[in-house]
Predict the structure.
Amino acid sequence: MTQLNEIGPSSTEQSVSATWQINLAGNRQGAAIEGPQKQFFRPVATEGLCGAADLSAYSVSLTPDRQVIPHYHEDDRIVVMRSGTAVTLLAAPDETSWEVALVSGPGDMIFIPAFWRHQAVCLHDVDALEISGDARFNHSVVLAPEFERPDLEQELRDRYSAGLLAPGAHPVTELARPREPLRAADVVG
């Protein structure tokens, strides 16, 4: 009869399992953190929380009354919209003003490359998951207040309220044009 030796976890496996924590994003899990860009985050996976080495994830909550400050990060980001509607304004690192307005809603995924300026303009309460190529998550945020455009933010909100802002990518130059007035033929009566 062959005798089987019991195999146990290695010291590395024991160390990893001793520090590993499972964390669920939700209202009762941890305190929300306000980042310098004025977004509220709730940790899901970070270096400090569960030993993540190559990425991190946070739950993000936004309301239309919050003004997010334009900013960029030194690492790539993916934002997964779970609920709500927002516009993400984007500009490449060498640009001096917004180029694209990306209108997104539930189920949409947004890739934001490292060093791209961006700003969320919340149109309806947003719940999203943000995943970063940085295990410490928000440590590399750099504010870019020179990109603030309250007039453009208001134009986006007005167009959304009027039903004139379709999902997808829009050149910012298109949004800066005056809106077409309603003609009598367009009014259903």
Observations:
- Residues 150-161 form the longest helix (12 residues).
- The helical segments are 11-19, 47-50, 150-161, 172-176.
